[in-house]
Design goal:
The structure is a single chain. Helix content is 39%, strand content 15%. With 547 residues, it is of the alpha+beta class. It has 5 domains: 54 residues, no CATH class; 68 residues, no CATH class; 172 residues, Rossmann fold (3-Layer(aba) Sandwich); 53 residues, no CATH class; 127 residues, Topoisomerase I, domain 4 (Orthogonal Bundle). The chain is globular and about 80 Å long. The two termini are 53 Å apart.
């Protein structure tokens, strides 16, 4: 292979493929902007030439003057012709791969796994059974329950809508009024995937006590959500923007009407908002608007992957009203406590940018209380190098005699995978990220299908999570479920959705195996934090020396 002719893009991919080689480590930080380091490019080419003398790659093959990357996407497109989309759904098909090179077959099998495709050896196939399944799928009679039907699939964000639609092929893009939708056939549905952009209604500020009519019962009053295009202020009252006076307003009422029109055309609405109380409330609101026009079902998934979406579509359920009630109570608390306190602050300090919340206010009070207690305590000096505290108050050098009192070995278990609070703590401590920034980055990672849902208090690991850890860790894997809970549908820990570390993820982006949107260095750093914590949680116990 003439490595001098290799482009920086291909050089990046080759370098990331051998990221564990110590000679490559120093080059990893500059790979994203390799073109800016011409002197390093030639160095790296020579190093790659040396490393690849033994052709150690798993998912591509170097033969003579050629580097062979199996084209799985074209295979998917071609092999798809073995099936047909009929009124009964997709017929079963079979494709056969003929290749003389065992290395190429192995590379193809490895790359196919990136698309959740399993390639079987011919000797492992029961041809009689396969033939029977194919014939039955093509000859079965049409029954009403088997009919493929159109369905409006609603998620929260446009990023998630685009990603989900691409799981099933190349979608057609259509514009309906103010919303963009992606139409794509699946096994049982013609999906029209669109985004509702989060909540479509919120408690009114014009009626009742902060949006709640109080009489014999408590009646929450909801209004559509408006957002000012000029200052980006969000509100629920009618009329112009209360902050800047602009009449250039985006009103969720228009989005609701577009969704209602699509629902009436489809006849079935599947709502795939986030799997928590907020997502359930959004689903309930949409259900209330479209239920007179179409059948409504809920799809719950905890990661945005093709496997998870297929499972959710096969296990549709009704709206969980208990979750909805929990969100309504929480939102009323926000208004009655946080909103009311904020107005008190505005009046007291004559500033309308101050806020108090049902959570942050008591937490702030607790912090002040602890600070006052701390000031009354005895003074100590902390020596972080030694991990000790010394009583007293001194601001000059002192002589310290250190005596080793014990030296022993202890067997310890790794920490469990991240929950939301632990992720916020580690991101702040290690990456110096604020809570708000961490949650925004985690939301992006979730919507791009790279991690599981990031709002969770459970560190339970699902069967899928265990398989991912086993694939990555190999012999170092020790299965740990950690938390307790229900089956696969229950909340689990925050974990990666594939056995890809940070550099493998970068490589898959460079190769366009995946196309996540707006992924930055900070996203990769947070992903790396989540990935390492999860994989460590599935490792064997380890021995440490304690002094």
């Amino acid at each position: 292979t003439d490595y001098d002719r290799i482009s920086p893009s291909l050089l990046r991919i080759l370098a990331l493929s051998v990221k564990d080689d110590e000679r490559i480590r120093d080059y990893l930080p500059i790979l994203p902007k390799l073109e800016n380091y011409p002197d390093k490019i030639q160095e790296l080419k020579e190093l790659i030439r040396e490393i690849y003398k033994n052709n150690i790659s798993r998912d591509f093959v170097i033969e003579g003057e050629h580097i062979i990357f199996p084209d799985v996407r074209t295979y998917i497109q071609g092999s798809g012709r073995a099936s047909r989309l009929t009124v009964r759904g997709l017929t079963k098909g079979a494709s056969f791969i003929f290749e003389n090179s065992e290395k190429v077959i192995q590379a193809f099998r490895e790359r196919a796994s990136y698309y959740d495709i399993e390639i079987k050896n011919l000797k492992d196939v029961d041809f009689e059974s396969l033939k029977k399944e194919i014939e039955e799928s093509r000859s079965r009679k049409v029954e009403s329950i088997d009919l493929i039907r159109p369905a409006l699939f609603i998620v929260e964000s446009p990023t998630k809508a685009r990603l989900i639609s691409r799981f099933f092929g190349k979608p057609s893009v259509k514009i309906y009024g103010n919303i963009i939708a992606y139409e794509i056939p699946t096994e049982n549905f013609i999906l029209i995937v669109t985004a509702c952009l989060g909540h479509v209604v919120d408690l009114s500020t014009d009626r009742g006590f902060y949006g709640v009519e109080i009489g014999e019962d408590f009646v929450p009053i909801y209004s559509s959500i408006k957002r000012c295009k000029k200052c980006n202020y969000q509100y629920t009252s009618e009329g112009a923007c209360p902050k800047c006076g602009s009449n250039d307003i985006l009103d969720s009422k228009d989005r609701i009407e577009d969704i209602r029109k699509l629902a009436s055309q489809a006849g079935l609405v599947i709502i795939g908002t986030d799997p928590d109380a907020e997502g359930e409330k959004i689903a309930w609101d949409i259900h209330n608007f479209v239920s007179p026009l179409a059948e409504v079902k809920r799809a719950e998934f905890h990661e945005v992957t093709a496997r998870a979406i297929r499972e959710a579509l096969q296990n549709l359920r009704d709206i969980d009203l208990n979750r909805v009630k929990a969100q309504i109570v929480r939102r009323i608390e926000d208004r009655w406590i946080g909103f009311a306190l904020s107005h008190k602050l505005w009046e007291r300090f004559n500033k309308t940018n101050l806020s108090a919340g049902r959570v942050q206010t008591p937490v702030l009070g607790w912090i002040i209380e602890q600070e006052n207690k701390y000031r009354k305590r005895r003074k100590v000096n902390i020596l972080p190098e030694l991990g000790i505290e010394v009583e007293g108050d001194f601001d000059k050098e002192v002589d310290v005699e250190v005596i080793l009192s014990s030296d022993r070995e202890e067997l310890r278990s790794p920490l469990p995978p991240h929950t939301t609070d632990e992720l916020l703590r580690d991101a702040s401590r290690i990456l110096k990220l604020s809570s708000g920034e961490t949650m925004k980055l985690a939301q992006d990672l979730f919507e791009n299908g790279l991690i599981t849902y990031h709002r969770t208090d459970s560190n339970r690991v699902s069967d899928v999570g265990l398989r991912i850890a086993k694939e990555y860790l190999g012999e170092d894997f020790q299965s740990r479920r950690w938390g307790t809970g229900a089956g696969e549908g229950a909340h689990e820990c925050i974990r990666p959705t594939r056995a890809w570390d940070r550099y493998m993820l970068q490589r898959m982006i460079y190769e366009r195996v995946i196309s996540p949107e707006n992924i930055t260095k900070k996203h990769l750093a947070l992903y790396d934090l989540i990935f390492k914590r999860f994989m460590a949680s599935q490792c064997r116990d380890f021995t440490v020396r304690v002094k």
